[in-house]
Amino acid sequence: MGRLSALFDPDTVAVVGATDREGAVGRAILENLRDGFAGEVVPINPSREEVLGLECYQDAQSAPPIDLAVVVVPPDIVIESIRDLAGAGTENVVVITAGFAETGSEGAERERQLRALADEHDLNVVGPNSLGIMATPNGMNATFGPEDALEGSISFMSQSGAFITAVLDWANEQGIGFQDVVSLGNKTVLDETDFVREWGGDPETDVIIGYLEDIDDGQGFIEAAREVTADTPIVLVKSGRTDAGAQAASSHTGAIAGSERAYEAGLDQAGVLRARSVQELFDYARALAGLPQPESDGVAVVTNAGGPGVLTTDAVGDSRLEMASFADETIETLAEALPEEANVYNPIDAIGDADVERFGEALEIALADPNVGSAVVVAAPTAVLSYDALAETVIEKLEEHETPVVTCLMGGKRAREAEATLRESGIPNYFDPSRAVSGLDALARFRDIRELRTDEPERFDVDRERARDILARATRRDDNRLGVESMDLLEAYGIPTPQGEIVDDPDRAREVAEGIEGDVVMKIVSPDISHKSDIGGVTVGVADEDVYDAYEDLVARARNYQPDATILGVQVQEMLDLETATETIVGMNRDPQFGPLLLFGLGGIFVEILEDTAVRVAPIGEGEAREMVDEIKAAPLLRGARGREPADVERVVETIQRLSQLVTDFPSILELDVNPLVAGPDGVQAIDLRLTVDPNELDTEEP
């Protein structure tokens, strides 16, 4: 166990604010502890000498040494109470009391004081505004919930206390047990990352599950979860959306990669399995807590009912798994063992009169097949089939082959005792075949997570000082946006740009065009005009003799479109051959929780319409950059589909990595779009650039 071990395994627990008043939270917590906790329970209340038959102390200084304190006093004396505890040497505190940041400015100041006090005395604080915590090995229920948890190997955290009470009520009925339970509350000191680290080092925790509404430190969470999921699965239900992404919409990336997209990418990179519902959360957890890892994705289905067998097959088709293709020897053996009317192909239908012996023989043959990585036993109740005996047979076959098996014993009371028998051996039973397959799918996904190795981000040789000078231009403007006039920023980080220049008079435009071989592209340059093509702000294929007039025309169109727009000039740029190239976009939007969110996808004018994009949290290495390229639907265009000459994908992958380094090096970059990044057979070229800079953050960055 880690630094929080005393939080879950204390010898002495104090309840600060203990009372015998009916209906009081302080009484409920004290009763829960008194009735189940294996250690000593210490009430603290200056106005009581005894509470519920236990000696009561005036303060922490006069009480016996306290390993864990549960604070349930009025909000205005919480800080004073915790200071008293810290002075007495207590390091672990659970604050039940509400009335902190969730209530307004006064509560927020109180929470700031709590954080400062915890820092000063190095306290481990859960809450405030917490239901409390539980640890089943020592019978500790330090909550004011009505239910004790059953003992098990799942550790559970929740941002909602009400969610915990509802889950425990349901889990007790289902026979699902827990190791530790934590109501996170306001997460003033300890948050989800702390408990992921703690439980990841706990040999008694087989699965970490949680209900979260947000993640405070996305980068820290990814780092911790990646380390933990090498051995211990993490399954989360994440609810709620922030509007940070919606507020960003000044860039294509900001519009597409909102905060919820950041959570999707961040949790995926962290190796977390994300459940879509509470039911799925526990379907995953039950399989992960008790079953061995499948060696392959092939699933065998053994049933006595054709319809449920087809439903199970459909569920496998909807998952990342596949129906196992039986070897010829398996099919021959099944044909010899089963009645002539049985189906010996997958799914195996042992037909309606199948007894336990026939089920067991079919399952034995299926599990021996080299293409089978897991199995589902789907049974409908009949007069000749004993579910209790079938449960024993399934357990025997699983232990013999060490291959994961889940069951779907359909029915009500008839299945209850068999379900309990299976549960004791770690085998989950599901009423719905699709949920059974979902459990196996979670096992296969976690296997892949454990096998995945994330490469370290490469550090390219770049001109960081030059980049900072370019970003500093934002401090000399009325707003904090930069555009194509800052293309040198990309050059400083090794991202190629076409030959060209931004000019502010038509004569200079002609001079620049004459220095570029062939016709040129001309674009209006204004931080106030986002979609230049929509207003006729881009002219393609301009000959040298037409450059002067094209310059005047572009400026006039921009003035007519937006008279108050700031016009920095016109960009005169080398014209690229787009016939053999693909327009892509690479960009970044800085998420408040996870930090720089990289985006890659199909670019040009269709980026926000098609939204064919992949997202990752930076920094990333080559492997993740390559995954981003392969993930988009338009990837075949880059690889040379339908006779097209393949693009230089290696340069695309390198560009994503270089952008990752740029936005990691400079947290002052809030948003950035390179659109389009033209990818052709001879490499890549960044054609257009837009970014938003935080000048205050820039002042703190080293050159």
UniProtKB/TrEMBL annotation:
EC number: 6.2.1.13
GO molecular function, one term: ATP binding
Pfam families, alphabetized: ATP-grasp_5, CoA_binding_2, Ligase_CoA_2, Succ_CoA_lig
Keyword vocabulary terms for this entry: ATP-binding, Ligase, Nucleotide-binding
Annotated CoA-binding domain residues: 7-100
SUPFAM superfamilies according to UniProt: Glutathione synthetase ATP-binding domain-like, NAD(P)-binding Rossmann-fold domains, Succinyl-CoA synthetase domains
UniProt keyword Ribonucleoprotein present: no
Enzymatic class: ligase
InterPro entries documented for this protein: Acyl-CoA_Synth/Transferase, ATP_grasp_subdomain_1, CoA-bd, Ligase_CoA_dom, NAD(P)-bd_dom_sf, Succ_CoA_lig_flav_dom, Succinyl-CoA_synth-like
SMART domains tied to this protein: CoA_binding
Catalysed reactions, semicolon-separated: acetate + ATP + CoA = acetyl-CoA + ADP + phosphate
Protein name, UniProt field: acetate--CoA ligase (ADP-forming)
